[in-house]
Amino acid sequence: MSLDRVRLARAYLSRVAEPPAPALAAFVAEEGPVRAAELVKAGKVPSSVEGQTSARRAEDRAADDLRRVAEVGGRLVVPEDDEWPEWPFNALVLAAAQGLRCGLAPLALWVRGKANVAELAERAVAVVGSRAASGYGQHVAAEFGHGLAEAGIVVVSGAAYGIDGCAHRGALSAGGVTIAVLACGVDVAYPAGHAGLIARIPERGLVVSEYPPTHTPARHRFLTRNRLIAALGDGTVVVEAGRRSGAKNTAASTSALGRVLMAVPGPVTSVSSTGCHDLLRSGEAIAVSTVAEVIESTGRLGVDLVESTRRSETTVGPPQGDAVRVHEALGLVGGNSADVIAVESGVALSTVRALLPALEMAGLAERVDSGWKRSHAQDRCGDA
Amino acid sequence: MSLDRVRLARAYLSRVAEPPAPALAAFVAEEGPVRAAELVKAGKVPSSVEGQTSARRAEDRAADDLRRVAEVGGRLVVPEDDEWPEWPFNALVLAAAQGLRCGLAPLALWVRGKANVAELAERAVAVVGSRAASGYGQHVAAEFGHGLAEAGIVVVSGAAYGIDGCAHRGALSAGGVTIAVLACGVDVAYPAGHAGLIARIPERGLVVSEYPPTHTPARHRFLTRNRLIAALGDGTVVVEAGRRSGAKNTAASTSALGRVLMAVPGPVTSVSSTGCHDLLRSGEAIAVSTVAEVIESTGRLGVDLVESTRRSETTVGPPQGDAVRVHEALGLVGGNSADVIAVESGVALSTVRALLPALEMAGLAERVDSGWKRSHAQDRCGDA
Asked: What is the pLDDT of residues A23-32, one digit of tens each?
């Protein structure tokens, strides 16, 4: 199966359903992208997939979309590519397996910029916040963006007005690298006032989206997009957020994905900081006042000095659904191969393959010579 | 044993040793105050007590001190009195038993003001912070003092410049009650610039100290005093504190005594808030932004009605509802046909047809000649 055919199939699939489309994702995992695309086009799909794809299935613009993205210096990155951010997106796979709404990895990623997606995501932190930011918030976002970039950390944000824009610009001003995750096609400059910024980011960094070219933003797309911002960073810093800010949605996704959630304190007299203070008060977020504290909080063991004590509190709960069945099928003493686990569990092989690394991350499975076995951390599952 | 003799004995004991004097306290607990005072005067004490009392044992100014405090409208409150704050000081007794430095209840309490000490301490919160407070910190301290007093809560603080003074004044401005705990005699106006404030507090509230009249403040006395501030409140709010502020000492005592420690967030660009942010980051303190949150955090079960508006307000996840997507695909000016809406939204045509009348009923969509458009109620969706 050539990678070109896979890419064409995934380009089609990325347009045929509105993300998140869990039934389609499961179908693609089971059938493989090329066959899944053929079956969707032919309408030969289970009713759950039918519901998600019937409206657009006749519309095959895959080749056009790939041409269009190439015109703006972009490409489609697919899970079959080496640069697919497997590790960051595993958290989405695991979350989806647990039935969390913020779960589900994208079927493909439309990308502008030459940088390698997986490499950039290796050491990245999301910096997000309100569009209606105060001067204080804008200042802090720019400082954090600058400082993180200086420390060699990629700044992930959403290219919106306010905090997002300041975080991107701060990173650029330090000669650093930043990733903008859009809620529209990567060829669409939204917001319009950030067209220049969005054009500059791919020079060293990336503009990415799960939406195909020409897709325009919509409210639900911002919310769906937020999970990717959360997944691509080791942690998320909320610089400023009103009580009902979209940034609080990114914050919720960050926690659900087991990433480190941080919030910047601000004046209690400022409504722009209310959301941050709520996150601090509830204990969901760790307070960060400096770039050094952000690095300390998100540090990976062995890379940075301090591993946040609170990180363990955000560990994901017991696995659910397919994950449970896969977990049950793991060897108790020796390892089982993925094929054996698939048969044992009745879960599609591709899903098994996607879930095993996620279970490993959760400390529930470990790789041994003969395949996969349960890790001792299984006790943490309790009565799951 | 008359209460007068006890009071005279404790007046003597309160001057004979520099607090905290754990050996003397233990000796008094064992022998009773009257006999302990006689033995101390006679020098017939264990060597540990001898060390704490030898320098001043010949100096018996108990009667003079009682006369002096009466002249400024005060009195000496002793553990044998009904108004002794038994319950608040129990934490000090317990902490002393654990060998904590911030432990040890005072031998007696010099008090100015007519109010009953135990009654006032029944529902009190300490509000403390830096002397070198910012305008922001002073504003918040005054607001918190005012708001707590309005809620019928006694504001405890240390009468210092900066945060302390603003907290007291805030309470007074609400016609409320406040307690100033001094690190000197209650007849000594320190700091001098707060002489007027310290004179006003006893009109409804109390000025208290474990130091006898005429005692002047000293650095170690402020630290010793801080444990009483922490003990008299159900909790302590640190409004502003530099990294080495004395308020952090009060904060440490608060935690050690098992009281609720709270910190007010502030701009991360302000050094005056560094201490507060350290307390939040380490998890020692709970973030409080409003008086309601202070009351919620310190509230005793059954006494306060927890304001839980925020609790229920869980962050919105990505709206999975097809209805949202259909709504997004409605025409803004003219109408869109159901087919167009299906393609735009990626929702199956049959679902679109089912949802449109429902959206219409909800006031979110309206039928026009050319199809369906958003109704004016769209504003309720807010922007992403």
From this structure: 999 999 999 9
